[in-house]
Amino acid sequence: MEETPVLSAVADGVLTLTLNRPQRLNAMNNALIEAMNRELARARDDPAIRAVLLTGTGRGFCAGADLSGGGTVDSAAREPPDLGANMDRIFNPMIRAMRELPKPIVGAINGVAAGGGANFALACDIVLAARSARFDQAFVRISLIPDLGGTWFLPHLVGDARGRALAMLGTSLTAEEAGRMGMVWQVVDDGELMDEAGKLARRLATGPTLSYAAIKRAIDAASTNTLDQQLDLERDGQRMLGRSADCREGVAAFLAKRPAQFRGQ
């Protein structure tokens, strides 16, 4: 019997999700994605959860889609699979849920993040990578297109020229190279990854959750908005946030020269 595909634990306002198929380098099968979708819905609906930390068990974060029999792609099947149907059913809803989650997601990328696993990592709001991590756009090697948002994330993070080259050449990047290109926030020693990611997630969990949600919406909208549209979006966001209890607390704490006690309200 296979292990639980995603381990979950809540502490200090942080929901830690650990991909748990180490015998397959946490390759994604339907059960793993369905579990992720359940956990993201839980994170959305539970006010006690104020940040999410995503990582993987073992020596890799995620090796992409499981290409073995019983995985998301079965090369031995009699008929070519309809990959788009599965994308619509569970994979794309997961990426949308991550980007729309009104709470921050920290990715702690340990080891390989290949194919869909690389773009799964890039869907997080803030990405920390172990020094041994690798980001590998492997799709072209099996005649596929980057998915899980890869064709959107890559040019937005590293620019059009680099994004096209990474996708078309199937290039593998070290953590340091990914950091220099702007794909990750910070590269840390392997032994420090979870400590640093945990500290960051706990910091976010005590922060102004409504502000984080508004920042996520605004930054995602900026790529298609005109400046005028973005100014209007910022205006509406400030109007909403200015009426929040957290904003009042933040201003009061600033004036009193004390740490703010945000409650996500």
Summarize the SSE layout with pairings.
Layout: E1 6-11, E2 14-19, H1 30-45, E3 51-56, E4 60-62, H2 83-100, E5 105-109, E6 112-114, H3 116-122, E7 126-130, E8 134-136, H4 150-158, H5 160-169, E9 172-174, H6 175-181, E10 186-188, H7 193-205, H8 209-222, H9 227-242, H10 245-256
Parallel strand pairs: 2-3, 3-5, 4-6, 5-7, 6-8, 7-10
Antiparallel strand pairs: 1-2, 8-9
Helix pairs in contact: 1-2, 4-5, 8-9
What key phrases describe this protein's structure?
2 domains, 46% helix, six-stranded mixed beta sheet, 10 helices, 265 residues, globular
Characterize the structure shown.
This protein is an alpha/beta fold and 265 residues long. It has two domains: 6-205, 2-enoyl-CoA Hydratase, Chain A, domain 1 (Alpha-Beta Complex); 209-256, Lyase 2-enoyl-coa Hydratase, Chain  A, domain 2 (Orthogonal Bundle). It is built from ten helices and ten strands. The protein has helices at residues 30-45, 83-100, 116-122, 150-158, 160-169, 175-181, 193-205, 209-222, 227-242, 245-256; strands at residues 6-11, 14-19, 51-56, 60-62, 105-109, 112-114, 126-130, 134-136, 172-174, 186-188. The strands form two sheets. Strands 1-2-3-5-7-10 form a six-stranded mixed β-sheet, sandwiched between helices. Strand 1 and strand 2 form a beta hairpin. The termini are far apart. The relative contact order is 0.11.
* Sheet with most strands: strand arrangement: 1-2-3-5-7-10
What is the name of the CATH topology of the largest domain?
2-enoyl-CoA Hydratase, Chain A, domain 1
The name of the CATH architecture of the largest domain is Alpha-Beta Complex
Question: How far is it from the N-terminal to the C-terminal residue, by CA?
Answer: 43 Å
**Which structural category fits the helices and strands?**
alpha/beta
Largest sheet: 6 strands, mixed
User: How many structurally independent domains?
Assistant: 2
Tell me the series of helices and strands, N- to C-terminal.
EEHEEHEEHEEHHEHEHHHH
CATH class of the largest domain: Alpha Beta
Radius of gyration: 19 Å
Q: Percent range for helical residues? A: 40-55%
Shape: globular
- Unreliable segments (pLDDT under 50, ≥5 consecutive)? none
Count the beta strands. 10
**Name of the CATH homologous superfamily of the largest domain:** 2-enoyl-CoA Hydratase, Chain A, domain 1
Residues in β-strands, percent = 15-25%
Mean pLDDT score = 94
